[in-house]
Each structure stands twice: as C-alpha cells, then as structure tokens.
Amino acid sequence: MAVTHTEKEESIHDSRFTIHQAKPPKEMQAHTYAIMNRVEDSHWWFVGRRAILESFLRRIVKEVSSQKSEVSEEIGAGPVPARASSEEAGPAGSGFQLSGSKTVGDVGFGIVARDGEGPDSRYRNSQADLSTHHSSRSTEADLSTQHSSLSTKADPSTQHSSPSTQHSSLVTHRSGPRILDVGCGTGANLEMLSEFGEAEGVDVSDEALTICKSKGLAVHKGLAEELPFEDELFDIVTGLDVIEHLDDDIAGLREICRVTKKGGYALVFVPAFMWLWGVQDDVSNHRIRYTRKQIVARMEKAGFTVERATYANITFLLPIFAGRLIMRLTGIKPESENNVNVSALNGFFGKILGSERHFLEHFNFPIGVSVVVVARKI
C-alpha cells in the first residue's frame, strides 16, 4: 500500500525519514537522467537555479581564497592583522553577512554585498578578481599534488579515465579551491562548479556517470553516505538537490562534513515543504521535502556551523503549487515535470528566477520552493 504524503511527513523521526515499504533506489528513475541531460542547459528551472547558486558560490570562493591568502601571508611574513570581530564579520568570523545587516527569519546570516560588485554580475566576468586571490597562494603546488594522487578509497576502475588522463580541461587547467559535487547527476552543475576551481563529482548512477564522462568531467562512483575520499580533502562540497534522496540524510551530511577541510564550506540546496510534493518528487525518488528549520538542524547535527539558510524560488511558488495540486486532483502524471514546459519561455522564466539573487543579496526569503544553506566546518 502506498504511503500518503501525510504519512511521509509523520514518519520523520530522530532526524531520519523512514518509508514503511521497500525503500526506493537513491538514484532517479532511469528515464529521468536522459530527460535531465537534454533540458538542464536550457530549462528555466535549471538556468535560474544555477544563477542563484553562482551568486552564493562566488562569495564562498572569495572567502576560501581570502583564508588561503592569510595563511600564506602568515607563513611567509609572520602575524597578519586580525580579522574583523564576530559582530562585523558574521558568525565564527566568516565573511557572510547580509548587506546592510538586514535579516529576515530565524536564520539571519547572509552574504556581504562587496563594493563594486552588483548582484547581477556573474562569476565568469570576475575571473581577474579571483585570479588575484589565487596568485598569492603558496600552497597551490601542494594542492596540485593532492589532486593528481586523488587520495581516494574508490576502485580506480570507477574513476574518470580516457579523455581523462588529462582529467578534463575544465578541472586541471583551472587553479582555485578544490570542489566536490555530491550527487553530480548528468554534470551541468559540475560544469558550472569547474568555473570556480578544481571540481569533481560523485554519483551512485552508472548512467549519470557515463553522461558526465562523455562531457570530459572528473567523476567517481560512490554513495553519499560512504564517500570514496579521505578526510578533509575539499575546500567546498556541494549537495545540490541530493540530500532528499538519502534514507539517512544525517549520515550523508556527516560524510560531506568529513571530506570538507576545516574552515571549508558546504553549499546545500534541497526542495522545500511536503505540501509541495509532486510528480517530480516521485520520479526522482525523493524521501522528503524540508523546511528550513529541518535542514538547518540536520546540518548542525552533522557537524557544520550554519552561516546562512534561506528559501529560494518564491517567484514560482504559487504556479508550482497550483500545477501540482491540479495533477493530484486529476491524476495526471507526466513522465517528468521537466516536460511540462513552454520552451519558448525558458529564457524569460530563467531570467526571472535568476533575478532572485538580487534580493537574496540583502535578505532571506520567508518561503519558497527550495532551501539554500551555506555552512562552514569549524
């Protein structure tokens, strides 16, 4: 007997999500990967989401680069000036604040609006700025050595090889922080992450990994709850619409924390609110849609210090809710919600969704289709 959405919500216990029948696989339904690979470069949802994520990543990368520069200066020139106080710099002395110190909701930490950097500027137009940070890093050679050896526990046969001995120009030819994308899927997010540093991905699906390899991306096979990497290898670890696939989400988050370097960051993006459950949750084999409070509690239990948590995609909340309600009432079940789309409007809708980053520069959203969390390993 199928579990109702109410039963799913009530079955959350001890920060875990339990299904009272045979557990579905962690990967999405087989046909979903081909659909995702076809649409994720153009569909408004994926385009808009990446624009929002890039605005968060840009600042995370600058914070990580700033930390590395300070370490280099300290090693090469002795003590460096003290960082701003916690009142000025946010929790644990981080660089994550809301512009103008504005806060909305119960988690009020945000991202500094840097001078000379408008919210609509894209990372690809700020490479020179990041290069300035990277050029001062005396540890780059060490990172390269680490990257070439990979220090993974995975079977080499599961790792990327073939155009790969070069490990993809997207990864090895770009200096920067070392980034891991957990649940990399068909690779669109991994391609975006490669613009920020040395990025590699891990996924449980052979089909998804095959697609990634065809794009020349560095990928590994592994479970989120048992990542095939040694401790503290990565400066930044992302889990973008993946935590909701896990039977034990805290175990997955603990693994993300384990492989994150001290002082490093995790960026997590998850679907919000069980009352928004829809066909896409079913075909993607989701276990849960989170509230902000739930995902923050899980991140903290896993060992992270949460510096910001906000809802996102408030723009399309009502249309998505209405569409899913109609599907439930009528019994309509498309192969994927990604197919329910007017392709001619992708560009327009993508820009509208992506424009939310302007507002997220200044305050948290009180509601939305998704939750974005920035957390640091102290």
Describe this protein's structure.
The protein is of the alpha/beta class. 39% of the residues lie in helices and 14% in strands. It has a seven-stranded mixed β-sheet with strand order 5-4-3-6-7-9-8, with helices on both faces. The protein has a two-stranded antiparallel ribbon with strand order 1-2. A hairpin with a 2-residue loop joins strand 1 (12-13) and strand 2. Helix 3 (44-77) packs across helix 14 (346-354). The longest helix is centred in the N-terminal third of the chain and has 34 residues, at 44-77. The protein is globular, with a radius of gyration of 20 Å. The N and C termini lie far apart (45 Å).
Chain-wise SSE layout:
Blueprint: H1 5-10, E1 12-13, E2 16-17, H2 30-39, H3 44-77, H4 86-89, H5 127-135, H6 140-149, H7 169-172, E3 178-182, H8 188-193, E4 198-203, H9 206-214, E5 219-221, E6 234-240, H10 249-259, E7 260-271, H11 279-283, H12 292-301, E8 305-312, H13 317-330, H14 346-354, H15 356-360, E9 370-376
Parallel strand pairs: 3-4, 3-6, 4-5, 6-7
Antiparallel strand pairs: 1-2, 7-9, 8-9
Number of helical segments?
15
The whole-number mean of residue pLDDT values reads 76
Instruction: Provide the structure class.
Output: alpha/beta
The count of DSSP E runs of length 2 or more, i.e. the number of strands, is 9
At a glance:
With 378 residues, the protein is of the alpha/beta class.
Task: Give the key terms.
378 residues; alpha/beta; seven-stranded mixed sheet; two-stranded antiparallel sheet; disordered N terminus
